[in-house]
Write a structure and sequence with these properties.
The protein is of the alpha/beta class and 403 residues long. The protein is built from 15 helices and 15 strands. Helix 3 packs across helix 5, helix 4 crosses helix 5 and helix 9 packs parallel to helix 11. The chain binds glutamic acid (GLU).
Length: 403
Amino acid sequence: MVTFATSESVEADAHTTMSNDTIMAAWPFRETPLRRVVVKVGSNVLALDQGGLNSARITSLCDSLVALQKQGIEVILVSSGAVAAGRGILKLNKRPANIPDLQAVAAVGQGALMEEYSHQFRRHGVVPAQLLLTRDDLADRRRYINVRLAMLSLLKRGVIPIVNENDSVTIEELKFGDNDMLSAMVAAKMEADLLVIMSNVPGLMTGHPKYKPDATLIPLVKKIDASVESLVHAEGSEFGVGGMQTKLQAAKHATNVGVFTLLLNGNEDGILRGLMNGTVAGTLFTAQRRKRSRQRHIHWIGAARPRGTVVVDDGAGKALLGHKSLLPVGVKLVRGEFAKGDVVAIVSEQDRTLAQGISNYDAATLARISGKKREQIVELLGAEDYAEAVHCDNLVLLPGNDG
Ligand code: GLU
């Protein structure tokens, strides 16, 4: 068994068992356990050749995801398969060639896809949720903050969020990607530790097996540089539209913000079983730095010029210092004009600036509900849109307060 290096950045080998060993040796989740994982499954794993969904595959996938969740790992699933499911329902032998037809087929299939997931997860008593997103949703700060809070709320409840591209309003992943890039953006924004991209190939190969039959699997990529990029062949499959190129782009995006990325063959039953200790066959892409998304988010909030000031009582001040959210009941006074989503300064009654954070309410509404408990807020506003005035995830203690 020979291990050889195709370049500085990759370690290649010819045997799957070797791949296991190489990944295991480099596995980053021993001392720092795997806490949150985004699993992306492509159409070529979920679809049947003639169109329609591969129920057996979905069953086994859901079993594996629930097993991960039982080990205390938060799981976010990014799943394609709407077009494939729609093709099955509409009895289309071929993938439609034009975009509006693809969008229509995806619209038909998305419901069926979720029905299948709901059925499978419910067998385990696990609830799934559907989030249809676009890359723009994740690039726009205000929108991504909303998505993030919703997703955190789902994870807190043990729900498995299932993300797909909102194919009827955007066509990026329909055209190229099959959710590869979307999954990398979700992993980055949700500060996942690991992105797993499941496809119908064993991982990154030293060449395209169609043109290079002796191509071997590369178990570890330390850096995606030009030599690695030159290995891939821009070709999608009949079902998906990703191909290896978009997977590499996704891996690059994720690893650049500190998310390890694992490429593996989703058609192998139980392939996710070894995720806890790294006994997996595939290609592991090393994160290029410590996770940056949270730091960037925090940095941005801390550096922003506050649009207004929220004065809080001592109890709320103490809670903040303990990294808790700011609730309306702890707000004494609101100064300045700010909109929902703006950064505000949070100060104590003694006028000491404690923190900065993103307000869930505009200034006038927050002033109305300040000092009020939930029932009073519901009475005043008709509903309590957010339990928190500032969610702890969107809050930065200012120097001197972060003890
Ligand atoms: N979002 C699409 C789906 O779920 C992308 C896959 C494709 O274009 O086939 O089906």
